[in-house]
Design brief:
This protein is an all-alpha fold. The chain contains 13 helices and no strands. This is Imelysin.
């Protein structure tokens, strides 16, 4: 879990105060980079549009879910699965932004904790009494739970359809599927409403270099996602990097059995786009952490870190592209390709977490549970 560490906070506040003062405190920073423009580009062209797209996708998922519940047939199941995947792909562009209301409600923990806990799901359905917002149910909701509910309740589609139509508990199965999807939609609406309300202005006006300023929080959330959400969760944990043996049952999209690579590549693209300030689903590029790093490195005459990062992301993508579409298959057949992918991702982790943060004079504000 991401932890805001008090010692780091106090240390960073003292260290930063001695070398860089913030606009939030009524003074200016020691560099001339336009931090507000960076934040405006992030909010207006990346974060809010991605959340809006996810909200639209989840509305479509709800509509397909209602149609499937009314008529549980193969065509409606296929459409529901398609809408689930559409939303899951968009989620890859949202998950890293664990800031503001998203952090307060533990949004990502209610949307994408995997592997899902099948026992918890089955117990919830059997009891017909559950609080899906409880932290105890974080592994029984969200995209991974829907993955199980649409692909994993039986060994074939005929039996999955029976699970929602002729089974003795079909109504309870339908209700749980409906409740999980409705909750995902409601959570996303809450986060989006915060951004389109007052939080956007609060966010873009927090331009200082302090442990609580937007520039610092945002880059820490970004690095935490890259290190934990992408490098570790999608690749390292299934590959057994943090355990004595590989764990093929820990892949994203476990029950659909064909999307783990697609989701990982999309997550990597989201990282690349955000670092370089590319608009979500657009062609424009604005001020970004890449431009910030380039300006500081150019001014002090040091090496081109931005190019090094982008080259390493490309190397990681090339290695990931050779993997099986189903990472579980890859782990079970030739896990060395998974560990090589992890190694390429790890090189970029060092560039982000050490070189970039040192260049920006920003402290790490989290402790990674993996301990690396």
């Amino acid at each position: 879990m991401k932890l805001r560490n008090l010692v780091l906070v106090l240390f960073a506040a003292i260290a930063i105060g001695s070398c860089s003062e913030s606009e939030d405190d009524g003074v200016t920073t020691t560099d001339s980079f336009d931090r507000k423009a960076l934040l405006e580009n992030a909010a207006d062209n990346i974060i809010i549009p991605a959340l809006q797209d996810l909200s639209d996708d989840l509305n479509s998922l709800k509509t397909s879910k209602d149609l499937f519940i009314a008529t549980p047939n193969q065509a409606n199941l296929d459409e529901l699965r398609e809408k689930w995947l559409d939303a899951y792909m968009t989620w890859q562009y949202v998950e890293m932004f664990n800031i503001g209301r998203a952090e307060e409600i533990l949004y990502s923990f209610q949307m994408n904790v995997y592997p899902t806990n099948v026992t918890d799901i089955q117990n919830n359905i059997a009891s017909a009494s559950y609080d899906l917002t409880s932290p105890n149910n974080n592994d029984a909701v969200g995209f991974p739970a829907v993955d199980y509910l649409l692909y994993g309740t039986a060994n074939n589609d005929v039996d999955i359809l029976n699970y929602y139509s002729t089974d003795f508990s079909a109504a309870s199965h339908q209700q749980y599927l409906s409740d999980v999807i409705d909750q995902m939609d409601a959570l996303t609406t809450t986060v989006l409403s915060d951004w389109t309300g007052s939080y956007r202005d609060t966010f873009v006006n927090s331009t200082g270099n302090t442990v609580t300023s937007s520039v610092n929080l945002l880059i820490n959330d970004f690095i935490f996602y890259y290190e934990k959400g992408l490098r570790a969760n999608k690749v390292g944990i299934p590959a057994g990097v943090f355990s004595t043996t590989p764990l093929a049952d820990r892949v994203e999209g476990l029950y659909s059995k064909e999307f783990s690579k697609e989701l990982a590549l999309e997550g990597l693209q989201a990282v690349d786009d955000f670092f370089n300030g590319r608009a979500y689903n657009g062609t424009t590029t604005g001020l970004s952490y890449a431009s910030y790093v380039t300006e500081l490195r150019t001014n002090n005459g040091t090496s081109d870190l931005t190019t090094a990062i982008n080259n390493q992301l490309a190397a990681a993508r090339a290695q990931m592209n050779v993997l099986d579409d189903n990472f579980a298959n890859q782990v079970n057949t030739d896990n060395t390709l998974m560990t090589r992918t992890y190694d390429e991702l790890q090189v970029a982790t060092v560039l982000f977490k050490i070189d970039m943060l040192q260049t920006l004079n920003i402290s790490v504000d989290f402790v990674d549970a993996d301990g690396d």
